[in-house]
């Protein structure tokens, strides 16, 4: 018996077919961007682009990029799509150097910030072009070795405090979350320096400040349905981000800096901290004792608040995760831990105290830190945006011309993948501080290691970051040891939602005392 279809069935079938064809056409047209620009590329099979696993928060973006990197390792670069947005992944260290250093003038900016708040937009990290250049020049004198030496005592005091706070746990051989232990130490250091306030958060881990800081770095689980919508259109993504419940947090830090600034302006006290230098930049336009360099403008209150906030977010989590990954590797590799302890003991026996100069003598610990930053670069990728049309060299390594970059295209440097590339670091999973002896370093491409970025826009706080991590580890290991235990994740599992490289379950280790009580 023939089935009678309703009168509109044919129209519906035609409409569905037409819609499918239109979608198919848009999809393929859009994802042919890199074909037209002449770059090797991977056409995605989902509208989420090639990085869909990090978009649905199944793995870190660094791991998504790593899949592309491994697949295209023979090429100099590869085009891909993050959502609908065409991006370029740089693979060859010579091309990375070309973009970050040689042709920096065409790639001065990072990918635009998705958070539309003055405390984020006025930060050095997010500034663009000439504005960035002028501010970088103003802030650089805050990080000279002379300035760091004047801040050393603040850092040292925080180290002594950490040792004091951990004494009870070490005596009982307790298991601690080292991510939190070191986050409290670096929070104390950076907050004291940047905001000019003494928090005592190591004694009081639930203080307001630490609570807000936890919220700041808490991975934001944006519901998948919003994400799925948002990847199709950057303006929608920006709108959703601006609606995320983080505004109170900005207000908290903004008010805190401004109150401290007003207070210190009304009741001047000379302190060796960043706040003192911010005050000089706000009132005079330059840091005392450093060359004025003919730049006469002064930082506004908003700009001071944005930089103080930036120093805090850029400074505490990066160093504390580095410290906790170092502790993890020392627990997993007890022979390396023994060498570290022996070096610390020998140097401190000779110099009598922990000082700026005694730290400089601990060369093996430097190597341990370098190897930690290779295996666990807190900032696992760098971005640069193309300012003017730019022709890349051939993707295959030949002399000919390569892909054309249009203004606005974002380039990504996969720091994590480069650090794990066996061509640069054989047996990359192995933790081997001896990769960092001078002879071995000399044989490697200088752009095979970039934990602090590279070129004129590299990390301005590198020396402080290394100093606070090294000093904290010296304080810790001159009194305690670490051991793995049943709660330790071996191997570690990275957290796909963390802002800087971190582990899902943190780093849990047993602490024991070195000296019998
Ligand atoms: C272990 C510690 C640290 C690591 C691994 C680290 C890593 C990085 C990386 C990879 C970048 C991007 C560089 C690029 O795009 O080429 C960066 C930028 C930056 N970092 Fe750090 N950082 C650390 C500590 C610090 C500290 C302690 C501060 C300040 C107190 C700081 C302040 C900044 C600032 C202001 C920028 C932006 C620079 C600019 O755009 O001119 N960082 N950092």
TrEMBL record:
Q: Which family does it belong to?
A: Belongs to the cytochrome P450 family.
- Cofactor section: heme
Name of the featured protein: CYP450
Key words of the record? Endoplasmic reticulum, Heme, Iron, Membrane, Metal-binding, Microsome, Monooxygenase, Oxidoreductase, Transmembrane, Transmembrane helix
What is a single Pfam family found in this protein's UniProt entry?
A: p450
User: Where in or outside the cell is it found?
Assistant: Endoplasmic reticulum membrane; Microsome membrane
Q: Which organism is it from?
A: Locusta migratoria
Residues that span the membrane, as ranges: 12-28
Q: Where does heme bind?
A: 459
Q: Name one GO cellular component term.
A: endoplasmic reticulum membrane
């Amino acid at each position: 018996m023939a089935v009678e279809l309703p009168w509109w069935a044919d129209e519906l079938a035609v409409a569905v077919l037409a819609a499918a064809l239109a979608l198919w056409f848009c999809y393929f047209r859009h994802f042919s961007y890199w074909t037209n620009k002449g770059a090797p590329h991977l056409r995605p099979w989902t509208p989420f682009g090639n990085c869909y696993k990090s978009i649905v928060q199944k793995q870190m973006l660094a791991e998504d990029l790593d899949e592309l990197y491994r697949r295209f390792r023979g090429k100099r670069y590869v085009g891909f799509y993050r959502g609908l947005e065409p991006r370029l992944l740089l693979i060859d260290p010579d091309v990375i150097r070309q973009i970050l250093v040689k042709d920096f003038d065409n790639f001065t900016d990072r990918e635009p910030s998705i958070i539309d708040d003055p405390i984020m937009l006025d930060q050095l990290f997010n500034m663009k072009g000439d504005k960035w250049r002028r501010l970088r020049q103003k802030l650089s004198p805050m990080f000279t070795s002379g300035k760091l030496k004047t801040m050393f005592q603040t850092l040292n005091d925080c180290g002594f405090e950490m040792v004091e706070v951990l004494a009870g746990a070490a005596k009982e051989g307790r298991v601690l979350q080292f991510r939190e232990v070191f986050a409290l130490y670096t929070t104390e250091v950076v907050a004291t320096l940047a905001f000019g306030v003494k928090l005592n958060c190591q004694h009081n881990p639930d203080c307001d400040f630490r609570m807000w800081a936890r919220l700041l770095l808490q991975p934001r689980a944006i519901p998948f349905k919003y994400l799925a919508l948002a990847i199709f259109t950057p303006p929608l993504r920006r709108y959703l981000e601006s609606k995320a419940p983080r505004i109170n947090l900005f207000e908290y830090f903004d008010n805190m800096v401004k109150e401290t600034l007003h207070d210190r302006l009304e009741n001047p006290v000379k302190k060796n901290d960043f706040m003192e230098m911010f005050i000089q930049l706000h009132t005079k336009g330059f840091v005392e004792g450093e060359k004025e360099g003919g730049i006469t403008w002064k930082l506004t209150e908003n700009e001071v608040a944005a930089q103080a906030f930036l120093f805090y977010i850029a400074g505490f989590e990066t160093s504390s995760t580095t410290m906790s990954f170092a502790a993890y590797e020392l627990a997993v590799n007890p022979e390396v831990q023994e060498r570290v302890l022996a070096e610390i003991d020998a140097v401190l026996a000779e110099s009598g105290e922990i000082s700026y100069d005694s730290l400089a003598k601990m060369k093996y610990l430097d190597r341990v830190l370098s190897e930690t930053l290779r295996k666990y670069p807190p900032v696992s990728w760098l971005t640069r945006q193309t300012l003017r049309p730019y022709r890349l060299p051939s993707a295959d390594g030949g002399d000919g011309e390569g892909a054309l970059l249009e203004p606005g295209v974002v380039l990504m440097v996969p720091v994590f993948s480069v650090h794990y590339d066996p061509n640069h670091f054989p047996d990359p999973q192995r933790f081997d501080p001896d990769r960092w002896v001078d002879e071995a370093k000399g044989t490697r491409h200088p752009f095979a290691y970039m934990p602090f970025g590279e070129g004129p826009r590299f990390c301005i706080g590198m020396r402080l970051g290394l100093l606070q991590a090294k000093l904290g580890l010296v304080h810790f290991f001159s009194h305690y040891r670490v051991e793995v235990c049943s709660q330790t994740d071996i191997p570690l599992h990275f957290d796909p939602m963390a802002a800087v490289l971190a582990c899902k379950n943190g780093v849990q280790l047993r602490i024991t005392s070195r000296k019998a009580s």
